[in-house]
Amino acid sequence: MAAGSEATTPVIVAAGAGGEEGEHVKPFKPEKAKEIIMSLQQPAVFCNMVFDWPARHWNAKYLSQVLHGKQIRFRMGMKSMSTVPQFETTCNYIEATLEEFLTWNCDQSSISGPFRDYDPSKFWAYADYKYFVSLFEDKTDLFQDVKWSDFGFPGRNGQESTLWIGSLGAHTPCHLDSYGCNLVFQVQGRKRWHLFPPEDTPFLYPTRIPYEESSVFSKINVVNPDLKRFPQFRKAQRHTVTLSPGQVLERKWQEGTQLLLLVKRRMDFGGRQSTRVLFVPRHWWHYVESIDPVTVSINSWIELEEDHLARVEEAITRMLVCALKTAENPQNTRAWLNPTEVEETSHAVNCCYLNAAVSAFFDRCRTSEVVEIQALRTDGEHMKKEELNVCNHMEVGQTGSQNLTTGTDKPEAASPFGPDLVPVAQRSEEPPSERGGIFGSDGKDFVDKDGEHFGKLHCAKRQQIMSNSENAIEEQIASNTTTAPSQTFISTDDLLDCLVNPQVTRIVAQLLIQGRSL
Known about the structure:
Layout lengths: L29 H10 L4 E4 L12 H7 L5 E7 L13 E5 L1 H9 L16 E9 H4 L26 E6 L3 E7 L3 E8 L2 E6 L9 E7 L2 E4 L20 E5 L4 E6 L6 E6 L1 E2 L3 E2 L2 E5 L4 E6 L3 E9 L4 H22 L18 H21 L13 H14 L8 E2 L8 E2 L6 E3 L35 H24 L9 H8 L2 H16 L1
Antiparallel strand pairs: 1-16, 1-21, 2-3, 2-4, 4-5, 5-18, 6-10, 6-17, 7-16, 7-18, 8-11, 8-17, 9-10, 12-13, 14-15, 19-20
Helix pairs in contact: 5-6, 5-9, 5-10, 7-8
C-alpha cells in the first residue's frame, strides 16, 4: 500500500502478543513490554498499548475543567531562532489558570490577565514538570486514568507521572536525564523529539550550568546550532520522531530486504483512536518542541539499577557546583540554579546528601547481586566494559537478520520491532519541516542514509564512534577557548565544565566507592 493512503482494515496484532486478533487485544503483554524496555538501547514508539486509558481524553480543555480555577506556573519563552539555548534560568514565569492559558493562546485579540505582557506571536508558554501528586492533590482518583502497569510496572499510575502542557514553540533545551528511562504518552497535539545517543555526549558539549539535579544540559541549541563555536556537533547522530495522537503506523517487512511500507491510519481497533508511547532509553539526549498550538503529554521516569551509582555522581556534582558558584556570587543563585531546584544548597546539606547517596549505594550492594563492586575500576576499564555491554545489546548478526541480545552470554532473541514497536532511527539530513512527521514521511525516520536499519549498528562501528567520542572531549574543551582568542580568563563555569563532565564524575564516583569498599 502506498505511503499516505488511508486504510480501514484492523491493524495486525504484533507477534508475541499472546492473544487472538481482536479489537481489544494489546500487542504486548505487560511482561513482554517490560522486557523490551529493560533491554532496548534505542528509542522506539509503542503503538496501540494505551487505547483504553481514560487519560486519552485529557486534552487541555478537559483539564481546564478538572483544574478549574487552579493556579499553575507557566514558563514563558521567546519564539526566536537564536543559537543560544533558552535555559529555564533565562525565562520568565507567571501563575495562571488553564482557562486563561487557552484564552491567551486561542483568542489573541484581547490579551489580559497574567498573560497580558506576552504577545502570543512572540512568546510561548509551557506548564512543564507538573507532577500529578501536586496538581491533582485533591483529585487523587484521577491517578487511575494512567496505567503504566500495562508496560509491566504493577501499581504504577498517575501518582508516578508528570503532565506537560504547552503552546506552539514551547520546548525543553537539549539535555540528558541522569536517572532512569522515560515513557511518554502524547495526548494532544504534536511534539517533535530530537534525540542523540549517549556516546555523542562529547559532541553535545555538556554543562551543569544551569544546575538541576538529574539533568545534564547541552550548550548547543540543537535546532539552530552555532557550528563555528561547537564544531564537534557535526559528528552527532541526530534521531528525530514526531509524536502525535490519533494515528498508527503499519510497518511490513519484506523477506530478505529492508523495504518499509508506511501507512497512516487515524482510527484503529473498531473505531478507537490509536495511541502511541515513546520510549527514551537511559542517558539519551533529547530536545523536545511543541509544533501544534496546544500540546498535552504525560510521562513517567522508570527507575533503573544504574540509578544507585548515578545518585552518587549527582551528589558529587551538586557539591562541586554549589560550592564554587556560591563562592563566586553568594547573592545570585538565580543565574545558575534552575528554578526547579528548591532545596537548600549549603555545603553542610550537600555533604549529608553525598553521604546518604553512598550509604544507599552500599545498602543496595548488600541486598542485590546485580551490582558488583569488583566491576568498578579506577583506570577506566569499567567504562570500556560498559560500552562493550551496550554494544552487545545492540549487536546483530552478519547474516542480515535483526536480533536483540540482552547480554554477552545469552543467545540472541528475535527483534522486538514490528507493526506495534517502531524504532526511532538516525536522520542524515536537517530536521523535518513542521508539515512532515514520522508517520507521514518516506520512511527516513526509520532507515539511515545507507539503507541500513538502526538496529544493525554493528559492534565495530559503535566502538569506532565511541573512540571518536573520547577523542572529542579534548577537542570540546579546546573549542571553548579557541572561539574567543582574546579571552584568556578562565571562569568558574569553564572549570566546572571540566570538573563535573559526566565522564569525570563517573570516575570520581567509582574512586570514592572503591575507597569505601576496601
